[in-house]
Amino acid sequence: MIDTFKTLLGDAGVLTEPDDVAPYATDWKHTVRGAPACVLRPRNTADVAAVMRIAHERRIVIVPQGGNTGLAAGAVPDASGSQVVLSLSRMKAIQNVDPVGMTIEAEAGCILKTAQDAAADVGRLLPISLAAEGSAQIGGVVSTNAGGINVLRYGMARQLVLGLEVVQADGTVINGLRSLRKDNAGYDWKQLFIGSEGTLGIVTAAVLRLMPRPKLVVTSLLAVADPAAALRLLKLMQDELGETINAFELISGLSVKLVEEQFGQRAPLAGNGWFVLIEASANLGGLREAFENVLSRALEQAIATDGVIAESQTQAAQLWAIRERITEAELKAGRSVKHDVSVPIPALPAFLADAEASVSSGFPGARINAFGHAGDGNMHFNVLVSVDTDSAALNRSVYDLVAIHGGSISAEHGIGSYRVAELAHYRAGAELSIARLLKRSLDPKGILNSGKILGMEK
After folding, report:
1. What are the E-state strand segments in 331-426?
2. Which one of 54, 364, 389, 449 is CB 3.0 to 4.6 Å from 198, fit for a cystine?
3. What digits encode the pLDDT tens for the residues 168-208?
């Protein structure tokens, strides 16, 4: 098998040495480790199609991998030694940037930050923004339906995809790299592959929507007493500032403390409860004045207890660094059990209170590191625990409350291999049945990222 792939891709396109393979064999948190037979590095879509034809004929399981920055171990092979990693990292070209039609076409291996910079060079904005944007790749962003800090204003990755090129399990290439805003010619098949985590097909290129690049940006950090006060602040901001709000991040006091402990960075204001990081942007004047007026009202009405507004881009970057460093600070602090969940926005305060009470009573000594995108109902309810904590029991205590409050056990990170059992437990039978029908139809031999999302098919 390896000789066949070397003939196809050349020696540089097939990695087999343990030191070369190791970075592709584990997830970002280094908690899941696989043993791939080899790592394939195709140069173009034709290479990917040829690989899949061979894999389909020989029933070789292919695990597509982008920047490998996911938090659900969705791009990691199993430990059998028989699965093959397909890295798209060499396919990194930007094919076209259109400032008039406001689109960008890029190959799957293109780094998200590279695409953002290409858009900025022509005065446009690619609004997908993630902490891992310096290493996350476009194919992975699309295949996981990535979210990030700007979902409140611009939506998930799904809302920004206009066209896709996909290689199917048998090597068939579907070229739908269209930049049309309106296209009702039949089924919108690309939606099947967005968020499917490489289990239905391999995204090799995408056309994404761009937005006007805002000339004015205001960034502010505020202290609030609790999540209920944060939602009152969100409503006030939306009433007065409308769709200029890009991001509304709710951050617990422990999150800020972890960043201070691990990186020495302190928040520039006092507060013992919760913090809210807000970003608004516009192209017309008056934004900062309007923002300052709303902030004054929030302080007068005791919705917020303190607040600062960045006076420069450097200060804004410092405020955002607090938010962006939380995940890494948590990783440095020790073992944690992560929950990327969403609930209806009005239910956030009740969910957080119920989940904290449940964890505190059931797992003494656990510390709750809660932070996330409150503006769209997505919270990262992470729990710092000891090495002997029963993570399955902890997950069940949190996810049961997510279900009670009408939420989802995965808001933006995906299912991967981490949450396969939980998905089977919490999703209705009819939803799983149609998912399995799609899987069997598009990947009848079960060779695409086998074991992820739905587990092993019988």
Report:
1. 336-337, 340-342, 367-373, 378-384
2. 449
3. 999 999 999 999 999 999 999 999 999 999 999 999 999 99
End-to-end CA distance of the chain: 25
The hierarchical CATH code for the domain 94-212 is: 3.30.465.10
- pLDDT tens across 356-379, in order? 999 999 999 999 999 999 999 999
Q: Which residues contact 286 (CB under 8 A, 6 or more apart)?
A: none
Please give the CATH topology (third level) of the domain spanning 216-327.
Alpha-Beta Plaits (3.30.70)
Question: What topology is assigned to 334-420 in CATH?
Answer: Alpha-Beta Plaits (3.30.70)
| 3-class state of residue 83 by DSSP | coil
CA 433 – CA 435 distance, rounded (Å): 5
**Residue intervals in the chain for CATH 3.30.465.10:** 94-212
Residue 101 exposed, middle or buried by CB count within 10 Å (0-12, 13-18, 19+): middle
Q: Range(s) for CATH 3.30.70.2740 in the chain? A: 334-420
435-447: pLDDT as tens digits: 999 999 999 999 9
The pLDDT value given to residue 457: 62
Contact between 369 and 255 (Cβ < 8 Å):
yes
243 closest CA partner among 348, 405, 120, 375:
375
CATH 3.30.70.2190-classified regions of the chain = 216-327
